[in-house]
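Q: Convert this sequence to structure tokens.
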Amino acid sequence: MRFTSERRLDDGVLEREFTLGEIPGVLWTPDSAPAPDSAPAPLILIGHPPLGLDKMYPRLVGRARYYATEFGFAAATIELPGSGVRPRWDAAEQARAELRRVLAAGEPVTGEVVDALILPLVERAVPEWRAALDALLALPGLGGPVGYEGGVISVGVRLAVVEPRIAVAGFFAGSFIPAVMFEEARQVTIPLRVLLQWDDAGNDRQAALDLFDAFGSQEKSLHANLGGHTGVPRFEMEDGARFFARHLRRQGE
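A:
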């Protein structure tokens, strides 16, 4: 991991951009350095759709700053394969073009279209998230426990299954779900909090409800709000942060 820039935001949160090989990312840490004998700061990995970090930055930094200032958590994100400044990915471009064609034509979005769109992204993104986690937890002052929040929800499901360092997760419903992910969801046992925008035109509401039902976690909650994809109420971020604090502080004791 190589840090490429550093700046102190106006609330004191330290923002550092980094690269891990060809993967860009951002790390946000609280304004005060931990005492030498203090426990390392819990870390939240913030997932997002493959729209590019530049486009997603305002939403990501808002969440990261809230976690840092209110709870003393660090947060980090990375650019997904084939998006933002990363090299173009022909298969992903073709899958997105096919989805746009199907939607424009009013045709049903088949399982084949969903699989081509989501599964290759999961296969590439999850190992990159795990490599980023290796590098982040090697930094002074960071040591877990670790939470994951955001989308693409299938990326989060796979991470929760294969990455034992993730102790808790908050998923954002709103992306297409391959059929195989319902089976993987049954293997997820960590505490979960799932956000669902009830009127999200691009989301298969029933599939999101079915996925929630499939999760094997003994502690899971579904938070549904009226409104479209970007209309999540601010109180959900605040409630979600308390959810992370409850579990990450307990894990870190």
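The two ends are 28 Å apart (CA to CA).
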